Amino acid sequence: MTTRRNFLKQTSLASASALILPSCGFTSDTTEKYGVQLYTFRDAMAKDALATLKQIASIGIEEIESARSPKGHYYGLSPRDMKKACEDLGMSLKSGHVALDNNFQKTMEEAVASGQPYLICSSLPSKGQTIDNYKKVAEAFNKAGEKCKKLGLKFGYHNHEYEFESKNGKVLYDVLMDNTDPDLVHMELDLGWVVVAKKNPLDYFKKYPGRFPLWHLKDMNMTKEESTEFGKGGLDIKKMLRHKKASGVKHIFIEQEEYTSTPFESMQDNMTYLANL
User: Fold this and answer.
1) Which residues, other chains included, contact 25 with Cβ-Cβ below 8 Å and sequence gap of 6+?
2) Mind listing the pLDDT tens digit for each residue in 127-153?
3) Which of the 8 DSSP states describes residue 163?
4) Among 73, 41, 76, which residue's Cα sits nearest to residue 56?
5) 277/261 Cα distance (integer angstroms)
6) Confidence band (pLDDT; 50, 70, 90) for 32?
7) What number of CA atoms fall less than 13 Å from residue 100's CA on the CB side?
8) Considering its fold, how many domains does the chain have in total?
9) Which residue among 11, 109, 130, 209 has its CA within the 20 to 30 Å range from the CA of 1?
10) Within a domain: residue 20?
């Protein structure tokens, strides 16, 4: 089974046949602009990025967050071409998952060219489930945030479940939060992984109000600890959306790593669920 956690450790992605879903003309009845993390459509994006973006637009998605791929941050497209492709389809590129590595300067330059405001680190730049390492990571995040700010970008971090482990009575994610500058490090809270870690996102909205401008809205099968379609898992999506203001969220990206049928059909189900709330 390919999960996002495993994917980040792999150096290649097997290409797959493009997924075809007829244009359904679906439009959300809500006023919320929902986005998608393109890892949801990873195989189709690797096969034909432009055709896949067109299909994504057809199911009511308005904002895009990219992810690293064997073809680069923009699936073989240039940053400017990625921006134009989204705009031509009535979508906007808002964010991208990247690595905080030796190529970070180039990554920032690409983001500026693409017009996206956010760069989100998708995994810890140094491994180690210790308080000292999380303080070290926080320092690296603050420095990355300073570099991004000088270029008009916003730097952030996307969690998984392991950041919520406790060491010496302290939750490691809290160590990260307490040692990062809110003006420099903008957190993307993956609500699904929070509940898998047996934590309540609302507690974090209360403890760190306004610190989460980005969400990954992801329902989770709590038995298998994998993503599922909205309404089938352990995340109370209605309650989360009622507390958006407290979190400070500005962009909500749907991400689904596993599917009942196909990524497009699962995303159609998710958008229908949101429209019917």
Assistant:
1) 58
2) 999 999 999 999 999 999 999 999 999
3) G
4) 41
5) 23
6) confident
7) 25
8) 1
9) 130
10) no
